[in-house]
Design brief:
single chain
Length: 408
Amino acid sequence: MLLIFPLINYVSGSYEYYIVVPTEEDIERLYILCTLGIVTFVVTYVLTSLNRTFVIMRNVSERYSRFVALVFSHKPSVLFFIFLASVATLWSMAYGYFGLTNRDSAEVGSAGGVISIISSLLAYVNIILWSIFFQSGRKERSLALPGLSLFLLLLFALFANSKGALLFPFIQVVLAYYFVRNRVPVVAIFVLAVFFFGFAYPVVQGFRYAVYFDLSDKTPFSFLPALSDYFLGFAWLDPAATPDGERSLSIGRGLFSYLAYIFKQAGDAVPYLNGSTYYEGIETFVPRLFWPDKVDMSTGHWTGQLFDHVALDDPITNVSPTYMGEFYMNNGIFGLVMGMALLGAFARLIDEWVFKASGNWLKVVFVLNILWLEAFVGTTLLVFIKVFLTFVLCVYMLSIFAKRTSAA
């Protein structure tokens, strides 16, 4: 974010389309504060040590990873898991939270959040199936189930009109290969880059601008005809055909300039939020069934509007403040240092607990959750906890089902 995206945008000239183009003073402040945050993270990571606890946690991680792999070796259980997640996704597309659609809780109902969590379990299925595939011998391998999960994820990603959702299923496969075989699939990464920049990015980004971000109160099903016409008509090959022209292909949504702007405005033109994004995230952890009036989780949206990077009449766009940006907008330099220190300790814990254990699929799950940067508490940490606990419950129920069918 701090090097690659700005460099690409500078070389291409698309930095001129940033909503706010940072000044030299803004960039200097950006690198000073980011250096402070990164150094704090590294120092805390190095100093954190709980050796005896690490060993216990590592053993638990390895045992659970083997248990899940055993459950997923039972094909009826896998098919049921895929069916459950697919039905939940279809429900979310029509009535719930899905992709880039923007419907509030009054239109969705109390079950929307739970259904959305279940639908996200399809990614876990894909990761586990491909990990098992790469671990198996040639005679035992079958592409049927891994291929089915990958196809469904890509299909739903296209309906979601999301670049990341189109890219992540392939990243899951690449990471599964890497952790199982301990080799970097260079050719696959190159093909993936061509796929993203040659297809996923122009198709999704162009279509968003083609429909003027008119996504409120609608489901992906209502956009299928327009998406089909846009895709089959090859309009995505000509970015100038979209209302914003070449601007629609700007890489990274201006994260570089947005973080610089947060560091400039927070505590000055915009008062510190004093933990508002954290409290909002904790509220969303409570199911709407028990708290019907809780807020809708849109941290990246309302903070983007607060810092002038999302238009007030735009109902859907989320701009990531990044972890350092969120820490700073809440409590300034103190919040930045404390937040990055906690992240450093947490990173050490995860490295010892997960990445030094033998559970390959679990490593992929944790790597992919590093990439979510909308808000640390509300849309990263607590979302992961909710989804993972749901996954644990579903696997336990499937293990009971597998035992009974095996006994029969």
